[in-house]
Amino acid sequence: MAFGGELRFMRGNWKSLIDYFRKMKGTSESPPRVSSSEIFWSSAGAFLGIVSLTVTNYKILDGTDLVMVIGSFGASAVLVYGAAESPLAQPRNLIGGHVISAIVGVTAYQLLDAELWLGAPLAVSAAIAAMHATRTLHPPGGGTALIAVIGSAKIHALGYLFVIIPTGVGAILILVVALLVNNMPKNKQYPKFWH
C-alpha cells in the first residue's frame, strides 16, 4: 500500500474511533419528573412487595434451610413498581426472567463451582442470551444468575430448588403485590401484557 493509501486508512480509522467515542456523549436532556402520586405508589408497592418476601422469610421459613430474600428482587421492585409500563417489568419478564436465569445460574455453579471466576460471568452472559431467546428479558435476572453462582453455602445447598424457592415463589409474590398496588391509581394499568 502506498504511503498516501496508508494515510487515508489511518485517517479513516481515527475518524471511526472519534465517532465511536462521540456516541458516549449522550444528550443534555434529563428524564422528566414524576408526580408525587407516582412517587407514593412506587414506594408503597416496593415496600409491600419486599415486606411480603421478608415476612415469608423471617416468619414462615424461619428454622428451615430455605431463603426468600435475594438481592435481585430489590432491582425487580424498582422495575415492577417504579417503571411498571416498561416491557421489562411485565409478568412474563418478571417471572420468566428470574426463573430462566436461576436455572442458568445453578447449572453454571454446578458445572464450574471450582472456577467461580469463570462461572459467574458465564452465568450472567448465558442468562442474558436465554432471556433474549425466550423474550423474557428482565435485568434483575442477571443478578439472580450471579447469586446462584456466588451466593452463600445456604444458596448453593438448595441446588435446583433455588429455581422454585426463593426465585419462582418470590417473583410470584412480587407480581401479586404489583397487580394489587399498580392498579390502585385510576390512571395506571398493570400489566400492559401477560405473554
Write a structural description:
The protein has one domain. The longest helix is centred in the first third of the chain and has 25 residues, at 36-60. It has eight helices and no strands. Helix 2 (36-60) packs antiparallel against helix 8 (161-181) and helix 3 runs parallel beside helix 8 (161-181). The protein is mainly α. The N and C termini lie far apart (56 Å).
By DSSP (H or I, 4+ residues per run), the number of helices equals 8
pLDDT < 50 runs, ≥5 residues: none
Question: Any idea how many domains?
Answer: 1
How would you characterize the largest beta sheet?
none
Structural class: mainly alpha
* Rounded Rg: 21 Å
Find the count of extended strands (DSSP E, 2+ residues).
Answer: 0
- The percent of residues in helical segments reads 55-70%
H/E series: HHHHHHHH
Strand content: under 5%
Overall shape: it is flat
**Distance between the ends:** 56 Å
> What does the average pLDDT come to?
92
